Inverse folding.
């Protein structure tokens, strides 16, 4: 599908690229999300579990930055994970900062899910050569960093 908006060649090219980027991302996301959706998790919840699993306990602000969610949204996500006993919040010496930790149940779940998720992503991206995957990663990083430095 391409754009029907025909203002200028530059806009037409950019809009077509944007549409293709979103459609590709959504297609891959839907296919690869089956792993954690089957466990009743949202992509944000899976992202929180994965971030803490790989990076260790983090404050909510840092988790939000890692998974690109607002502070209000991340609070709700963590509240829901806490209700399921997958994470716990702990206050440190500086009582202004609350860190989020995996519970044993949360650790067990992400240890079981993450290898399956990695395999699903690998399978979806196998349509691209290793060089194309590298180029895709480079281009996405360039797009993602343009406003953030």
């Amino acid at each position: 599908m391409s754009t029907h908006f025909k203002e200028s060649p530059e806009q037409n090219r950019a809009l077509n690229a944007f549409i293709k980027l979103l459609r590709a991302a959504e297609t891959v996301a839907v296919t690869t999300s089956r792993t954690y959706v089957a466990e009743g998790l949202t992509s944000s919840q899976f992202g929180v579990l994965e971030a803490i699993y790989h990076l260790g306990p983090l404050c909510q602000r840092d988790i939000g930055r890692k998974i690109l969610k607002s502070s209000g949204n991340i609070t709700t996500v963590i509240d829901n994970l806490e209700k399921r006993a997958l994470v716990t919040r702990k206050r440190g010496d500086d009582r202004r900062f609350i860190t989020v930790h995996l519970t044993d149940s949360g650790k067990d779940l992400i240890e079981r899910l993450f290898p399956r998720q990695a395999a699903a992503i690998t399978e979806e991206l196998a349509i691209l050569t290793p060089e194309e995957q590298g180029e895709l990663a480079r281009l996405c990083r360039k797009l993602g960093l343009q406003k953030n430095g």
About this structure: The first strand starts at residue 58 and ends at 59.
